[in-house]
Design goal:
By secondary structure, this protein is α/β, with parallel strands linked by helices. The protein is 36% helix and 14% strand. It is built from twelve helices and twelve strands.
């Protein structure tokens, strides 16, 4: 009977017990977002095989996204067809632990003499700790970031990184200038990103989490401000209601000047983009933006 982990490829395999390393071992691994992680695993696997030639990694078809990954695992648990290792979003772990699908890594951690020195300090392990047991190991952490087509941005007078917008009000102002210059779709903002963590970012920047004590905090002043900011961005930039892939294509094709998404996509955007000057930057100001309940202001 296979043991199931909520973890990631490299670390989970290195912690397999010694008794399993005496003969050929086949480990099935499932992960999301092939466009993001394929390059990573293509580089990891040859080095892993050099160190562990008696272990074979069988890669399953990639999940479309984290939601698809969790739904697939829940279905496969019923059919007893789970992979040995699955890569899941941090916000999707609890249900797998509660249903007994994810298994504790504590027996393996106990055998690692320098486990805490290998990058898995308490702050990271806490993300996957339920009760007193660790069920998963952090592998990929990303943040929201702004992607900019500097060739398009020049049409709004933005000609260097120092000129890039620093507040959402400035983003909306740039959108207006781009539209005045004939840019049909100036921006795509990742409202539909997995876990709605762009909404979370708007709330955390005000010091308010999305949930407290099991309750959603959207009806707080911070939650209302986050929603009003989103509404201002969507209306002020006349943002089309696109899927993630279509929003990315809008930017990589060279049509849009700005694309707000995850840092995890930097490499894939660089590979896919048309011939234009590409920069990334953050929104640093916490100034409130921009919707007053009646109209949208560009500045």
């Amino acid at each position: 009977m296979k043991t199931k982990y909520l973890s990631t490829l490299l670390v989970a395999l290195l912690t397999l017990p010694g008794s399993l390393l005496q003969a050929k071992v086949v480990v099935e691994f499932a992960y999301p977002y092939s466009q993001l992680f394929d390059v990573t695993y293509e580089k990891i696997l040859p080095k892993f095989y050099e160190a562990h030639p008696n272990i074979e990694i069988k890669m399953r078809a990639a999940y479309e996204n984290y939601e698809d990954g969790t739904n697939t695992i829940l279905r496969e648990a019923v059919a007893n067809k789970l992979p040995d290792i699955t890569m899941q979003g941090l916000n999707r772990q609890a249900i797998l632990v509660e249903k007994g699908i994810a298994k504790s890594l504590e027996p393996f951690i106990a055998k690692e003499a320098n486990f805490s020195k290998d990058g898995y300090h308490s702050a990271m392990l806490k993300l996957s700790t339920f009760g007193n047991d660790v069920y998963g190991l952090p592998f990929s952490i990303s943040l929201p970031v702004g992607y900019y087509n500097m060739d398009v941005m020049a049409k709004a007078g933005v000609k260097s990184v120092d000129d890039l917008p620093k507040t959402w009000e400035e983003v909306i102002d740039v959108c207006g200038k781009l539209m005045d210059a004939g840019v049909k779709n100036p921006m795509f903002w990742g409202w539909n990103i997995t876990g709605n963590w762009f909404l979370q970012a708007l709330m955390w920047s005000q010091g308010q989490g999305v949930m407290e004590n099991g309750k959603f905090m959207i009806d707080t002043p911070e939650g209302l401000q986050a929603l009003e900011t989103m509404k201002s961005i969507f209306r002020g930039c006349k943002m089309p209601n696109l899927s993630t892939s279509d929003g990315s294509t809008l930017f990589t094709s060279g049509e849009a000047g700005m694309f707000f998404w995850s840092t995890s996509s930097v490499a894939s955007v660089e590979r896919a983009k048309a011939d234009f000057d590409f920069k990334t930057n953050g929104i640093t100001s916490r100034r409130k933006c921009c919707y007053d309940g009646k109209s949208i202001r560009r500045s």
